[in-house]
Sequence to fold (122 residues):
Amino acid sequence: MAARPPEAAVAKVGPKGVVGILVSHQWDVAGEDACDTNMTAAQYFYTLNLKDGWLINGAPIFSYNHEATSGNRWTFPLAIGVTKTTFIGGRPWKFAVQYWHSSSHRTISDPIFRFVLRPRLW
Fold:
């Protein structure tokens, strides 16, 4: 059984949406010299509820690699998405698109588009 990294989450839920952060930390404990792991990662998330099943949201993951060389430790993506939940044939369906753009101290990565189409299970 693998050990789980320590994690902590804080969120504020309100009538207009949700905002929060989930933080975790991973490090190697086996003492294997070939792979040093010492990384803090977090996922910030937000949802702004609109009318008629529409919402604006994002949930990218950013990280700080303690083992990386100076100037290459941070990765921080920005994200925005639009989601629509609607009923088709009496069943709720979720349609979503998100745009992620990640940057590190020295480089800007290619943008990521994420598409979701799935039935909602309530």
Residues 17-28+38-119 form one domain. The chain has a mean pLDDT of 81. The chain has no helices and eight strands.
